[in-house]
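so my prof wants the structure for this chain in the tokens format not the other one, which i didnt know existed until like an hour ago. anyway here's the sequence
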Amino acid sequence: MSQFPPMTSALDEEIARAEVYGLLARLWYAAPDADLLGAFGVAPTEAPAAGAFLEEPWRQLVGAARGTDAAAVHAEYDALFGGMGKPEIYLFGSHYLSGFLNDKPLAQLRTDLARLGLARGEAVSESEDHVACLFEVMRYLIAGDDAAVANLAQQQAFFATHLQSWLPTLCDAVAQHPKAHFYASLAGFTRAFAEVEVQGFDMLG
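here's what i got, hopefully its the right format
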């Protein structure tokens, strides 16, 4: 996590996609600590995955990380996504897909995860439809060793079913929230990366 290297070859681009999903999962699951913010301090300003469309959103994210500290971004995360009762912004797909938490979209997700041989780890307190958990599944579907599961067809199907329709709404809500600073930049990069993913999947036919 200490470097975000630009990638070139087709294999490297797949590695880069997996690393981006891993980074997004980490940042959406919890506020970055001082070590991760420090990694942004030495990160290249070139986007870590292919696509000039990502360059400016990545530069903005790197700049936002360099312009904050662990305490400030932790407070921002809590203000946006934490607190007692209803958060300012939900990070769960079911909320956007059905209007309710722990609803039918979560049941469908659990069925799909079981089919892929995946399950929530005991140490994970959030439900499987948390955006960070979904990004971690995408990382696995790119970088996993089981070719029957980790392939483009599975990536496309999972992304289309469980992320594509509602992720832009989440990103817009965060980007427009007056309490969002670092996370506004993260939302911008996340949305841009998702658009590149959709374009890539569309090319598969």
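also thought this was worth mentioning. Residues 49 and 153 are 20 Å apart (CA to CA).
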